[in-house]
């Protein structure tokens, strides 16, 4: 089993990612919440609700950053519901978050399991950036960072040029890609290829497992939101894909692209800018290599996603 340190803003697709991870053998060393889809305290409560459904009460959950580093808080209840889980209004979780912050948890677990963790960030990167500020040696302890974020070739999903997780805290994203560790971005370019088909939705609707029934209940609001956008009843699997690739990188092929995060542009703030000119282009030190998903085995990923919910 791979040891995962998860950082999330638990709304609907984060919940699906947690289910995917546990059902496919991820060993979660800890989970931290962050602002994004919903405020960080609600994201932590939702994480605990998902773990209750899965019977995974042993995983420590801590509340993380309440707001971005340098801009006002903005959340996405229009996509995830006022409660972050599709307005299902579930009862309170059976336990409370652990004391201490999510950023402190990243540092502590990195020292406890040096070289063993894969850090999977499926929300804004504020906690990860704060952990880097707490311990600049962190990249020597965490070999791989998987980020659901960015877009190589726009459009974005929150502005014409920016993807939500990067846009919610561009300064944090800049700190993360500047650090001396391996960073992989699982971008909208690839996650939007994972739209669920009608037959796959029908299979989830008929799920007999508790976690499958839970998934179907929270998915309704998400499907409504994407139907308004795409004019067909479907949704992409943004966060589950990032978790799937953390567990099995061979599901995809990759390419490395020089990247920087736009912080100042009036219309481009929050854009993960990729230099596509090739290795011979003249670049300054503001560019940092980021690994991007190129091709994806979508059928295998869909099969594994359904298996996580239905088996």
UniProtKB/TrEMBL annotation:
A GO biological-process term: purine nucleoside catabolic process
Source taxon at top rank: Bacteria
All residue ranges annotated as the Inosine/uridine-preferring nucleoside hydrolase domain in the record: 4-302
Gene3D superfamilies registered for this protein in UniProt: Ribonucleoside hydrolase-like
InterPro entries membership: Inosine/uridine_hydrolase_dom (IPR001910), IUNH (IPR023186), Ribo_hydro-like (IPR036452)
Entry-linked CDD domains: nuc_hydro_CaPnhB (cd02650)
A family per Pfam: IU_nuc_hydro
Molecular function terms from GO: purine nucleosidase activity
Keywords on record: Glycosidase, Hydrolase
GO cellular component, as recorded: cytosol
UniProt protein name: Inosine/uridine-preferring nucleoside hydrolase
Organism this protein belongs to: Acidothermus cellulolyticus (strain ATCC 43068 / DSM 8971 / 11B)
